[in-house]
Amino acid sequence: MDIHEEKKIIRKEYREKIKRYKESDMRERTERILCFIKASSFYTDKIIVALYAGTHNEVSLHDLFLDAQNDKKTSVFPKYQGKNSLRFYQVFHEKDLEIGAFGILEPREGSQDVPTNSIDVFFVPGVCFDSWGNRLGSGLGCYDEALKEAKSDAIFIGVAFSFQIAEEKLPTRREDIPMHYVITENAIIEARIKAKHIY
Hints:
The chain has a single domain (3-190), classed as NagB/RpiA/CoA transferase-like (Rossmann fold, 3-Layer(aba) Sandwich), CATH 3.40.50.10420. The protein contains five helices and 13 strands. The protein has helices spanning 3-18, 23-39, 41-44, 62-70, 142-147, and strands at 48-50, 74-82, 85-90, 97-99, 105-107, 113-114, 121-124, 128-130, 135-136, 155-159, 165-166, 181-183, 188-190. It has an eight-stranded mixed sheet with strand order 6-3-2-1-7-10-12-13. Strands 9-8-11 form a three-stranded mixed sheet. It has a two-stranded antiparallel ribbon with strand order 4-5. The longest helix has 17 residues, at 23-39. The chain is globular and about 45 Å long. It starts with a helix and ends in a 9-residue tail after the last strand. 38% of the residues are buried. Mean pLDDT is 92; it is low at 195-199.
């Protein structure tokens, strides 16, 4: 089996798994995840933070966005550019987001572009992660391409529920960018092997 098919099977398995959980349970888990994030130095000490407006299958960062605005941080969100490319734009209010590619909220046209290499920390969604920091996303490779442009001291944070953490190492390609940490409702997981930028 080639790596593409292997990833496809794993992705389907974890997408099915998340459907088994009630919305109330997901909210409680999300609250615990956000508590971990808000107390962490890789959030409190950073100025420019890349968030995301995820799907119903992903951990919601809505309340983290409100917190970041109150703390006068620069909040940026990704916008799909086509050809598996993302760019990041500053968002001041919820109304600055509109339905974009794949039905996901994105910054409105005319939003202020923020260079990827100026962002301090990236919070990244995923279908599943492992304790080595590897991430399995939607399959488009958008985040992998974007994170290649990050500055050398930027921090990559995977955000997921505990049941999205694979016990075994996920299949990866050279192009896949690992996380430095993965945050679940139970723990902040530091990657077993220090994440490196792959160029």
